[in-house]
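not sure who needs this but someone in the group chat was asking about HIT family protein from Enterococcus silesiacus so here u go. i didnt clean anything up, its just raw.
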Amino acid sequence: MTDCIFCKIVDQEIPSYKVYEDDQVYAFLDITQVTKGHTLLIPKKHVTDIFDYEPELAGEIFARVPKIARALEQAFPEMQGLNIINNNKELAYQSVFHSHIHLIPRYGKSDDFSIHFGNNQEAYSPVEMQEIAEKIMKQVK
């Protein structure tokens, strides 16, 4: 894609702080550095989001996540945890429309990062939960 910042990074038209590269993926530091070591893992092939992945590409990309996670853990022994995030589409906070996975090291509760999962369990009856599950199950191909 001609106007994609991540494609330009892969093609070395724009500099990056590379941490890993092979024939399928490129990993580099996110310039925002939410926490020290915040890394992005991207497919070299341009795909917009998870909905564009073929099974083979997904396997290649997601197989690299533990490799990068272990590298972060070794590089930063003070790291106490790791968030792995993949935002898809604008409403889900995707801001660069070349699929990417964030690996965000966590060092303590005072990190400038948070995620909130609301608990809406009481909003759905067991029957409604089963209907939701079946609706999704019918679409899994």
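also The chain is about 30% helix and 20% strand. if thats useful
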